[in-house]
Amino acid sequence: MSNEIDTLATALYVTTDDLLAARPDLGPARPRVGIAPRLSDAELVTLAVMQALLGFTSESRWLRYAHTHLGHLFRYVPKQPGYNKRLRNATGMIVAVIRALATDTTLWTDNVWRAAGRVRTDRRESRRT
């Protein structure tokens, strides 16, 4: 399973990095002079999406897991307060990247999902009458 998670993380990072390189306006504003973040925006988004995909609701548990199992993929895995602060400041960027990832998959336009949604809606309407 480790190879599958490594592959997913790598593919997610590459896609996110390419998207953020093409759309630098999505990233948070940073001063020209100062300390550069140790974790890139693409790495932050990759960690956040992996946390959601793997079902971790606790940031501290996620960061322990990431440090132990994904540490070889990232130059730096932050501690919980730094991760939390970066996530809160990058909400807009994360939403935009997730939306771009969702529209890039076939599930976004899959007729099976649309048909399932119609069936579910039809069932609700039939219960009302």
Automatic annotation (TrEMBL):
It comes from Nocardia jinanensis. It comes from the Bacteria. This is IS982 family transposase.
